[in-house]
Amino acid sequence: MKKIFIFIFVFIAISLVGCGQIDSSGQIVNSDDGDIFCTAEAKLCPDGTFVARDSNNNCEFSPCSELIICDEATQCPDNFKCYKFVEKDLAMCYQGNPCSQCDSHQCNIAESYPMQVFCK
Questions:
Q1: Burial letters for 24-41: b for 16+ Cβ neighbours within 10 Å, e otherwise?
Q2: Could you tell me the sign of the dihedral formed by the alpha carbons of 108, 96, 77, 46, in that order?
Q3: Staple partner for 99: which of 1, 23, 84, 107, CB 3.0–4.6 Å?
Q4: pLDDT digits (tens, 9 = 90+) for 8-26
């Protein structure tokens, strides 16, 4: 089963390269009509969200959202939680696993408000 997925991936990659040219920025330019396709990469933003490359902006990553500072008066939007990383001065709204912000990707989280994140 794994071999089938690898074969399909390689086939798609070869097909895309055959339809255009890959330049040094990771763009695939379709030589027939000039369409630009970007490599499928994602960038982790400081608030835990991800952004993709933008084919309308020379395949640069889309900008990250501004950080939302949270406290008792300012609640986080849906799907975000309020975390205070020990190394940072302010608590912020974060989506996803806050341990991914730690170099080791491991942390302890103290149940409080805001939740305290201690990187290991």
A1: eeebbeeeeeeebbbeee
A2: positive
A3: 107
A4: 443 454 454 444 455 555 5
